[in-house]
Amino acid sequence: MDQHHDSSGEAQTADLDFGPQAYLRDDDLDGDTLREECGVFGIYGHNDASAITALGLHALQHRGQEAAGIVSYDGSRFHSERRLGLVGDTFSRREVIERLPGNAAVGHVRYATTGATILRNVQPLFAELNAGGFAVGHNGNLTNGLTLRRELVRAGAIMQSTTDTEVILHLVAHSRRSNFIDRFIEALRALEGAYSLVCLTNKKLIGARDPLGIRPLVYGELEGCPILASETCALDMIGARYIRDIEPGEVIVFDEQGVHSHKPFPPKPARPCVFEYIYFARPDSVVGGRSVYEVRKAFGAQLARESHPDVDVVVPVPDSGVPAAIGYSQHSGVPFELGIIRNHYVGRTFIQPTQAIRESGVRMKHSANRAAIEGKRIILIDDSLVRGTTSRKIVRMMRDAGATEVHFRLASPPILYPDYYGIDLPDRGGLLAATHSLEEMRELIGADSLAFLSIDGMYRAMGEPARDPAAPKYADHCFTGSYPTHLTDQSLVEPTQHQLSLLAEAS
Amino acid sequence: MDQHHDSSGEAQTADLDFGPQAYLRDDDLDGDTLREECGVFGIYGHNDASAITALGLHALQHRGQEAAGIVSYDGSRFHSERRLGLVGDTFSRREVIERLPGNAAVGHVRYATTGATILRNVQPLFAELNAGGFAVGHNGNLTNGLTLRRELVRAGAIMQSTTDTEVILHLVAHSRRSNFIDRFIEALRALEGAYSLVCLTNKKLIGARDPLGIRPLVYGELEGCPILASETCALDMIGARYIRDIEPGEVIVFDEQGVHSHKPFPPKPARPCVFEYIYFARPDSVVGGRSVYEVRKAFGAQLARESHPDVDVVVPVPDSGVPAAIGYSQHSGVPFELGIIRNHYVGRTFIQPTQAIRESGVRMKHSANRAAIEGKRIILIDDSLVRGTTSRKIVRMMRDAGATEVHFRLASPPILYPDYYGIDLPDRGGLLAATHSLEEMRELIGADSLAFLSIDGMYRAMGEPARDPAAPKYADHCFTGSYPTHLTDQSLVEPTQHQLSLLAEAS
Amino acid sequence: MDQHHDSSGEAQTADLDFGPQAYLRDDDLDGDTLREECGVFGIYGHNDASAITALGLHALQHRGQEAAGIVSYDGSRFHSERRLGLVGDTFSRREVIERLPGNAAVGHVRYATTGATILRNVQPLFAELNAGGFAVGHNGNLTNGLTLRRELVRAGAIMQSTTDTEVILHLVAHSRRSNFIDRFIEALRALEGAYSLVCLTNKKLIGARDPLGIRPLVYGELEGCPILASETCALDMIGARYIRDIEPGEVIVFDEQGVHSHKPFPPKPARPCVFEYIYFARPDSVVGGRSVYEVRKAFGAQLARESHPDVDVVVPVPDSGVPAAIGYSQHSGVPFELGIIRNHYVGRTFIQPTQAIRESGVRMKHSANRAAIEGKRIILIDDSLVRGTTSRKIVRMMRDAGATEVHFRLASPPILYPDYYGIDLPDRGGLLAATHSLEEMRELIGADSLAFLSIDGMYRAMGEPARDPAAPKYADHCFTGSYPTHLTDQSLVEPTQHQLSLLAEAS
Amino acid sequence: MDQHHDSSGEAQTADLDFGPQAYLRDDDLDGDTLREECGVFGIYGHNDASAITALGLHALQHRGQEAAGIVSYDGSRFHSERRLGLVGDTFSRREVIERLPGNAAVGHVRYATTGATILRNVQPLFAELNAGGFAVGHNGNLTNGLTLRRELVRAGAIMQSTTDTEVILHLVAHSRRSNFIDRFIEALRALEGAYSLVCLTNKKLIGARDPLGIRPLVYGELEGCPILASETCALDMIGARYIRDIEPGEVIVFDEQGVHSHKPFPPKPARPCVFEYIYFARPDSVVGGRSVYEVRKAFGAQLARESHPDVDVVVPVPDSGVPAAIGYSQHSGVPFELGIIRNHYVGRTFIQPTQAIRESGVRMKHSANRAAIEGKRIILIDDSLVRGTTSRKIVRMMRDAGATEVHFRLASPPILYPDYYGIDLPDRGGLLAATHSLEEMRELIGADSLAFLSIDGMYRAMGEPARDPAAPKYADHCFTGSYPTHLTDQSLVEPTQHQLSLLAEAS
After folding, report:
1. Which among A270, A453, A475, C126 counts the fewest CB atoms within 10 Å?
2. What residues in C contact A17, CB-CB < 8 Å?
3. Average pLDDT, chain D
4. Same domain, yes or no, for B203 and B311?
């Protein structure tokens, strides 16, 4: 699927109370951030399936704050609740959980990458097939979603959402196979791109991961009941035991007969997305067998190895830069200090009354801790650089607070290419590193020095000797341009101009 | 579609503030009322298409109070707003109308007859077909909706609503014809039952009426722009000119080339639903060329002709009994008095604190006007009798207020059979007249005498000599059992037990 | 204007921002209506005091639709709920009633006459005095409220509302008497104007009516428990028994010792407000011993006696003109017809898209019933005339629908003077009859003839030979200028310009 | 005023959408936290007074999350908005700011210490005095508020709130002085306890701080306009310049004539509350001339000096324990690690489905970062200990994650006594340290060792040689029992049983 945003529809919802704008964070205003696409969760056989799913989604909230949904099955009917807003806004309420009875459930949190944030796009999607009900939650993005959609509509399909995920439902519905799992696998074979799926039928909980394993999916267990989740932190939240990662290309099925693993695709070397380590996953998660926290510390230590100016303090850009800054500090011996305080009550965009105030630097999200900075030479550590607008403000804020030198380090390489697998990045024209030299970036940001983690350094911090161009271990296309799959939709004429839906702003 | 109600889903909506219960009227509590199914409206070529549609729907509000929707087309995209609640709750607001740009629009008000009252069932339904967008608003009910739905799902269709209307979209999507109107007509040929449709494509406004013309649909004009509406009162509201009724079996198409009328069905004698005259249509509407008000007065006059006890005053059961009571009074010479006052602030069900108070007769909706009744022999006139529970309460209220005799008259014949064309009636077991003799009903209601308008009298009041059993002029099956179409869904095994949707209470 | 304010209220409360504008009805837009001030209710000693009070207020809803409140006392604490909107919006909900425990309660419905419609002005007002809690609900308006307010603030009082009612609380708080009833009576002695009060302390339910009895207040009984209410319809709603009217100048006290009546004022001839009969009271109420319905019919019959053009039908302006039209019809023998249909789903102001539509007469509230009018000479009967804007529209609507002659009759005399006792009327400049001759009015309204009920005719319809200028039986100052009390606040410099509160638009 | 909580009223609000429960944080469930009382802000002479006040309050949000309010003055009228919820929920919206015109404004954020969290208690309070309008925002708590309230009610005052702050309004209203500042100072002389006030009249912005300076108040300047704020972080947020702290006992007045400082009280040694440094103030604020961040680091370093077990890592309890943990790490050389990850999406209490899950440790707010802990000896640093329930859970969570030893350190002394100046602490019976020995606490918490910062160590970290019992430099009564003022209300008979208001749950 491509990255088209139908922002015209964003304000549209039947729900008067919490439109998406209620959750616009100030980062969003200038788009200077990475945004995760989704998180998924599923459980089979537990009496409190929906309540546990709600907790699991809450632990995955960092993967998507715009909407959340749960579908449960009670033995005769499916029940669905899908809402805009945070998990806790809706799914912490007893009456909502009571409307989701049954001992199997799948859930989803969403940051919209395709399709406007409107209620009909909130997942899990549900369809009544001839075989019975079928619910799907999807993390990732298809690179041939639009192409498949067109083919299906031409064949008479009527789409109810504007998401790429819906094509999976229609592919299953149109399959001529008689066995449900065969139909599902036939559908997967048509897909291209990234997908970690949790699916629910009236008999089974199904998990699936694309052949390259671009997005994560783990398998755990609570009181004997199998669980699927995007990250291990969701297992920790509910006291569940981690069993293993779902393998790339694996289809795992849980039903009354137990667990069955299918491997319908020819084996290929995995290419998990390196951004899970850099930014997306929670630091207490273990992704692909590695502690995210430790990897981030290693990125920071590697940064110190690659270049180390003479400074007085290491200051993280909170919160995502903190582990790398700790790693940098521990490796370099330079003291770690909270030179920037993060205001946790963000979430609304206030009126900024006058130009003078705007220029003097209203700080809704970050403020300088002058006592830790004044008269010091500081090194700032952030996780990654997208547009650079926030970085520029932070550097100026540091100087205003009395820093005598400000060095800026990114715990990841320069982002040069867009992503098509579920990360919401600007076009190349909007990526600072794709359009500016290092020196131009340094000057624009206003730092005394600027450095990025090297690509080989990134691999080294993850235990590889260096990146192997013939067989890179990770999906690192944003840094290298080496995309791991076809990008079929990109070959459509003017795909970015294409009107994804004829129905604007629909409720 | 059959008349199954999925009331379990009624409480389900994304809208936190006004669940359907906010609109529960006290009649609804004992189901002792007729409920209309829907009203439709469409306009083509007017700059203020949506604002005019909102006004038209407001005039049709009596035909459906549970939800309302408008779809407009602006030349490149469709725009849709569908909400639970009254038209004025949503569509009186400028910002909502501004989200519905374009010079063509169709709208719908709904009292759910099939499918729970959930947002995804609110019409007009919209689909993106290969040919482009297609919106449909439907008044009526299909008698083979469930059968068609099953066939379509078997062929791979995924339904987004639980309404019978959606099968029309899928039939069009699956048609092999190349011309859109041909596809549409092919779809209509598969339908059985009652339908008055307004449809919008990116080129056309289309109206259609089932071959028997069971539900009404009129054609008018405002400032040169064609209008379709369920009743003439919607034309009056906006100052539009009435042109003619859409004929039974007619498909009318408005586009840039003008107006085209298609008659794809072999001609048959029309069978418009007589309940439009008895109860549903607004008294100031002209239906099938007749003033509804005058027909109701004629029913009342005919009642007086058929039996006239010696009484002091004629008292209408407000508001629907008023025209018949005026007719009765004018024909009989007995004074017309407001013996019952209607409280127009109903809409909520209050706690009725104690049994004593309940028995003493808390009157949320009606109260006795003692001054007009005390010491009098009265004749009460109501439009029709369903369960009889309200009638019993009203008779007792009249006696408590001092009436010395209470005679009860219904300005329609006894209802003996259910409807399958969009009127929400109880099963036969719940219809008082289907299960009790006249004398039993009189005793149960507590009246001194009870009489219904005769079937022949009803026809006579409408200008016929009597009902012609070989060729009845109206759909009068609720009184006679003579259904004008096949009832295919009724032959399904246990149709009333059938689970309409696997997804309960979905949002 | 009509006394059934029907469903203008029904649609509300979906509106989250419930500023007063949410309750603007379309009548309000041109101010062409009489608006009632308030209704009060109280009960003592009943286990379901609050639930019964809610029902009583619902029956009094026509007296005030902007806000409602209940204060209860549970033996140790007072409980209060005060909300903008209709009674049923809030007080039909079990959880609200459960927050109002206790066996004594007072309630109030409000149409603001003084003070903006903000929550702190919603009654009953409550204060914690040294003697304990004290709640007051007030129907009427003080003519020295502003003067008293200024004196109290000068003495150090801090007002929490902008209502005139609050001065009563402060007068009681500042009284030096030791006995509570003495303090209360001392406060009443300072008041000038119209007041019917229901008050609650931790021991007593108290009712009081001003010395002239301008506003109504009745005393009833339910299951042995005393009740106070503005109108008998509130007693009927709950099945309570009417005992008697509270007398002008009476203070009635209910406590554990029983009932005590105080008459602290020297006796004077009563002057009840005649507008209760003309417009305000519900037709099924009995006010001052007279059926409101019968009085209105008598006004209509008297109108026919005073002038009777040769017409074909009598048409009421619904709903308030209906009883007078029935009286006119019965006296004159001219048939009564529903020539105007009222839309009960008003309550919102829709966008009126184009000038053409506006001029062609969009009718949100009334529509012409052409069948009853076309080709007829009609006589329209309305209750009263304020600005005349609605009357003009209705006459034109009748002509557009084919009436050949339109005669207009008002079942009350011309309104020439403002009211200061709780009726919200325009200044003299806004009163049509105060600024135009009869012929000018007729021309402006566009009627073929125009006539008002004569003042003597009004008295005659109420059983008097004529108005006795030396001792008029009713407060009829709006017709005669003969105000029954001093108007102290009117002598303040620029009283109408005076800023009632320094705090604008407070929440 | 005392610390009585009227929690029965909490659910009560005029605001349907976000009752206080929406903001219940999970800490609140077991009361194991310190809660700040309030923050205040005021500005004089700026065109964007209200927008700037909204930003200032947002920066002070950590001082009170239950409600917020702003009162502005536009030269002729006052405008007020007071709402439950966060500042950003209401005051980020343009239409709200536009309802607060004028160039002077005062604002308040509140965590209720007295009076239920109901709208009428939300500050700034406003009164219309004879001299004109008067708005007051108060941080702190009076220790004779209840006594003064009783005296005022006895004299005829009617209170509109249940806060201690309102007595200030009434004392000013009842003063016999003619000059407003004289009246205000006369009122202050009657007060006992802690107060930092911002007040607005139609001419002046006034700040005042109690004679001991228990609560902070700073004076700054933006574009030539004076600002008052609880903390310097509010000045930083808007780019304002810090000028100086308001002195203990100082009354500062800003008007068209400029700034005037009054010192109406005899000078006394200041006793600022030490908890501002320990917990309440934001780390980037400078309180009493000291960086809060640096003081907290010094507390951590002092902790390391006082006892230092042999451990592998220092782990802060986030977020409040972070600066002390950094201080400890830097002093001891033990690596600082994020062993606990804080979930920033808290705010709702989810259903915890089964006992098994509850015991296995559902972590809504904190989760263990196993990679940083497993196999390690850790030392946990938290700011203070109230009930100990959270500490016990965290220790167990650390052991579950594989910590081999868990040592617990508090960067403040044991809390032994309640506070009466605005900090919401449990009674002595609820304070763990007041009822358990150190060893009992260690065992209860489950740590391998437990230590608190010593009282002298606390003073030493702040630059004093030790605490001087004859003249302690800070209000440290929670640790020492040495209260800096009289506690008049505590001598009332059964003050904690006293019913603060006769009106329960009033809106």
Report:
1. A270
2. 16
3. 88
4. no
Phi-psi category of residue B109: left, alpha or beta, with phi > 0 → left and psi -120 to 50 → alpha: beta
Instruction: Report how far Cα C133 is from the mean position of its chain's Cα atoms.
Output: 28
Q: Does C16 touch chain A (CB under 8 A)?
A: yes
* Residues D311 and D428 occupy one common structural domain: yes
Say whether the ipTM exceeds 0.85: yes
Contact C400/C361 with Cβ under 8 angstroms?
yes
Which residues on chain C are in Cβ contact (under 8 Å) with D499?
76-77
According to DSSP, residue B336 is labeled B
User: Would you tell me how many other CB atoms lie within 10 Å of the CB of residue A129?
Assistant: 22
Q: How far apart are CA B435 and CA B416, in angstroms?
A: 8
Three-state secondary structure string covering B433-444: HHHCCHHHHHHH
Condensed to tens digits (0 to 9), the pLDDT of residues A130-174 reads: 989 999 999 999 999 999 999 999 999 999 888 899 999 999 999
Count of positions (residues) in chain B: 507
Cα distance from C60 to chain B (closest Cα, Å)? 10
Q: Quick one: A265 and A305 in the same domain?
A: no
Residue D121 has pLDDT above 90, yes or no: no
How many Å apart are CA B457 and CA C479, to the nearest integer?
52
CA C440 to chain centre: 30
Q: Is A63 on the interface with B (CB under 8 A)?
A: no
Q: Which residue has the tokens 């609900």?
A: C137
Give me the residue from C126, C154, C174 closest to D130, CB to CB: C154
Looking at the structure, tell me whether residues D213 and D333 fall in a common domain: no
Chain A CB within 8 Å of residue D208 CB: no
B:C CB pairs within 8 Å: 216
Active-site amino acid positions of A: 38
Same domain membership, residue A338 and residue A255: no
The span from the CA of A177 to the CA of D342, in Å, is 48
Cα–Cα distance for residue pair B277/B227, rounded to 1 Å: 22
Residue where one domain finishes, among candidates A236, A271, A306 = A271
- Residue D181: phi and psi, rounded to 5, are -65, -35
Here the CATH number for the domain that contains residue A451 is: 3.40.50.2020
Using the beta-carbon criterion (under 8 Å), do D286 and A371 form an inter-chain contact?
yes
Question: What counts of helices (H) and strands (E) characterise chain C?
Answer: 18, 22
| Domains identified in chain C, total number | 2
CB contact under 8 A, A338 and D351: no
Alpha carbons A99 and B506: distance in angstroms, whole number: 9
CATH for A174: 3.60.20.10
Q: Which tokens go with D207?
A: 């700040």
Judge whether D161 lies within some domain.
Answer: yes
Tell me how crowded residue A488 is: count the other CB atoms within 10 A of its CB: 17
Domain range spanning residue C24? 6-271
Q: In this model, does residue A114 exceed pLDDT 60? A: no
pLDDT of B507: 38
**Three-state DSSP state, A406:** strand
Shared domain check, C316 and C232: no
Q: Which chains touch B (3 or more CB pairs under 8 A)?
A: A, C
Q: Which of residues 364-423 of A touch D (CB under 8 A)?
A: 364, 367-372
Exposed/middle/buried for residue B75 (C-beta within 10 Å: 0-12, 13-18, 19+): exposed
* Inter-chain touch D170–C158, beta carbons under 8 Å: yes
Which residues of chain C are within 8 Å of residue D157 when distances are taken between CB atoms?
Answer: 156-158, 173
Decide if D173 is inside a domain: yes
Say whether both B333 and B258 belong to one domain.
no
* Subunit contact C348:B18, Cβ cutoff 8 A: no
Q: Is B125 helix (H, G, I), strand (E, B) or coil?
A: strand
End-to-end CA distance of chain C: 32
Q: Cα(B71)–Cα(A129) distance, rounded to whole angstroms?
A: 28
Residues A354-378 as b or e (16 or more Cβ within 10 Å = b):
beebeebbbbbbbbbbbbbbeebbb
- pLDDT, position D351: 75
Across the interface, which of C222, C284, C341 has its CB nearest the CB of B367? C284
